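Data availability (excerpt). The following record was deposited with the supplementary files.
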Amino acid sequence: MEKVDSKSPSIWDKCEVFINTANHCLIAITTFYLIWYCLQNYEMTGTLTQHAWVTAIGYQVLMAEGIMAIYKANSLTSLSSKREKNHIHWILQVIGGTMALYGIIIEIIDKERAGRRHFRSLHAIYGLVSMIFLCISIVSGLTALFSFEARRYLKPVISKFSHNILSLAAFVTGMVSLIYAWVDIRWASRYDPGNLRYMSAWALGFIIFFSCIGALKSLWNQSIGVMKLFLCQPKEEIDNDSENQ
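Predicted structure:
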């Protein structure tokens, strides 16, 4: 049975919950606007349009929510146990990452068939970098998932630390790619001359920061564990640190 924290929440704790709730609202609003934009102006089954809404849902909804699922201040999983949070995290990350990869791959295939040049815009370049990080983070995610079983070969704190960095890199570069999609690509500017797409781009910037607060706090704790490991901390203390990450 989990211990109940009797300490009353601090002002910062309350601010974190408020920021997190606001972030959920930003995610919902920007996603709704993108889908509405696609429905109003394009066929949802078109390759370019499908690329847009599939990758957007993959990154800014599922992956963002997956990152926040294990965050203590997350308003949607505050009543869930640690094990339930981990399950929600993995499910959302797997589905979101798969959707993002699918959206990127169908656009690459479509350009190849049309004989168009690849990766000419910042949107495409960041998308490619994110795809590479996604593929690597899948492998690191498996090592983090089975870190306890593989602790004889790789310390849990190292596998979790590396997975955290790679996953954040995949998420951030993917979201930056979405930002450049709104501000740089003709697809977005054709029916939206400026205001709403630029507001969406700014909102995505806030979503990146707000979604990563909990992960960055965890990354800081894990970095301390890694430093202790390389400073030759006794084995028993290292294992205790890794269990608490």
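Summary of structural features: The radius of gyration is 20 Å.
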